[in-house]
Amino acid sequence: MKILVCISKTPDTTAKIAFIEGNTKFDESGVQWIINPYDEWYALVRAIELKEKDPSTIIHLVTVGGVEAEPIIRKALALGGDEAIRIDSNSNDSFTVANEIAQVAKEGAYDLIFTGKETIDYNSACIGSMLSALLDLPFVSLADHFDVTGNTATIKREIESGEETCEATLPMIVSCQKGMAEQRIPNMRGIMAARTKPLKVLTPAASTATTSIQIFDLPPTKSGVKLIDPENMDELVRLLKEEAKVI
Amino acid sequence: MVLVYIDQADQQIKKASLEALSYGAAIAKQLGCATEALIAGTVKENLAELGNYGAQKVHQLKNEALNSLDVKAHSTIIAAAAKSLNATVVVFAHNINGKAIAPAVAVRLGAGIVTGACSLPNTQNGFEVTKTVFSGKAFATIKIETPIKVIAINQNSFGIQNHNQAASVEEINIPIPAASIKITKVEKIEGEIPLTEANLVVSGGRGLKGPENWGILLDLAKALGAATACSRPVSDSDWRPHHEHVGQTGIQIAPNLYIAIGISGAIQHLAGVNRSKTIVVINKDPEAPFFKAADYGVVGDAFEIVPKLTAAILKMKSTA
Ligand SMILES: Cc1cc2nc3c(=O)[nH]c(=O)nc-3n(C[C@H](O)[C@H](O)[C@H](O)COP(=O)(O)OP(=O)(O)OC[C@H]3O[C@@H](n4cnc5c(N)ncnc54)[C@H](O)[C@@H]3O)c2cc1C
Description:
The complex is a heterodimer. Chain A is an alpha/beta fold. Chain A has helices at residues 37-53, 70-79, 94-108, 127-135, 188-196, 233-243, and strands at 2-6, 9-11, 19-20, 25-26, 33-35, 58-64, 83-87, 112-116, 139-149, 152-159, 162-169, 172-176, 199-202, 211-217, 226-227. In chain A, 29% of the residues lie in helices and 31% in strands. In chain A, the strands form 3 sheets. Chain A has a 9-stranded mixed beta sheet with strand order 11-10-9-12-8-1-6-7-13, sandwiched between helices. A two-stranded antiparallel sheet of chain A has the order 2-5. A two-stranded antiparallel ribbon of chain A has the order 3-4. In chain A, strand 3 (19-20) and strand 4 (25-26) form a beta hairpin. In chain A, helix 2 crosses helix 5 and helix 3 (94-108) packs across helix 4. Chain B starts with a strand and ends with a helix. The chains are: A alpha/beta, B alpha/beta. The site of flavin-adenine dinucleotide has 26 residues of chain B, from helix 5, helix 6, strand 16 and helix 7.
């Protein structure tokens, strides 16, 4: 089986969110970069677990990003995965990113494509779904369990009213969330091995962006907390009802 | 024409879709065009009532095979319907189904998409939509550059608006592609208010010390008619189910009222809840960071305060 895992570079969860150049660009100064947690903890680790069960499995990682994404992709290779592909584009248009990945996916004839459920920076949750249309493949989103026997995948996913188990025939695309796998820490052997694993850099195919970011804004800050006497919960209830009007 | 996809679970129309429809109708008013709705599958509701939320016409793809989510099939037929109806804007709820389907529909239509939208588009100069980014820590305004636009609107961000009208209902015939997945088992969570739809949410953190202490929180939630949530370590320790985990790596919610009990207010937790309209924090540590993000705070022991708050709510409800 051949698996492609989509990896995105995102700011660390504690990064200060600020903007520069008239609020048109994210301020990257001092920001620590991480692998998008959903891509790392769930998509990548589940792919590695599948390879541990069946060592003939081949895992490729793909990221769309500039050279500054390489430490992230090396870290992903240190966790596991056989080789990585970086498509040299800094686009933040979801369609462009999906279209670039689709070209790699077509070339590589993968049986399975894993993504995280969304990235923690743009929160668009678009790539898996877009890939399914670009490649015309089945797509199961928000998966928290995944197994495969022969050509048939069994997936558990979140639905509006609970959980659903479904089956699909490979090739397919799955977006992964909590439950799929447990976070792992790369070990020394993995880190050493990652240094020599192949990392291919591709020039992007020509995609036409469908969207462009105009400006960023920060939410207004709260005016300050009103402290309520712990002995006077009637007062809190009154404020929620009469002032905030939420109950 | 603005086409709004009406999504269902268990043959019932989702509240998020009624909000999406209200939102779509407001866009149509802005653009001076009609609002139509599209529903796949069979539902229990009377579809003419979708007029109350702004639809002039409802198109139904009446086929039971479409009652559960199959992204390949749904996106194919929704795109085909949008094309044959000449929709220029297609609106989805940014809920579980909408997140899964909308981007595929956008690709099939060659349309640009904004997911997680949180306000009406600005159509003065092109078509710009504002969405939440960085897990609610910021907003980005995005220009859609294509003739057809797809928007998925965040839940609880626009509200449901009433239009006093009835919609005409028509069946639409579009060939349904073969199923790409087979559902083998469904496990429903019964009787709970889905977290993303809830107006009121009561949430607990590690300060409650253990799962055996959740009774006071559940009593408060029951008194309010609220859904329950928790911080990540609480779900990681299996004190509460995973689907209650809110935050940057859990669910992002925007209820009218969020009551945080024994939660410190770490930045990753705040990211998931800071769009709540009103935040109440109950914490014994006056220095807990959550107080900076709160509207109302109570400093003290949750084990004493929460039952008193529940009693005060019940008292207010019995006299109201
Ligand atoms: C990459 C990453 C992603 C993360 N994603 C998330 C996420 O999505 N969601 C999330 O929640 N966390 C997330 N976290 C974890 C986050 O950093 C915090 O560790 C977590 O939110 C803390 O949970 P807590 O507030 O329940 O526990 P604690 O931080 O331990 O806080 C417990 C609080 O309870 C109070 N308390 C104790 N006893 C009482 C009492 N008797 N009465 C009243 N108050 C009391 C204490 O004063 C304290 O403030 C993430 C972390 C990382 C690194």
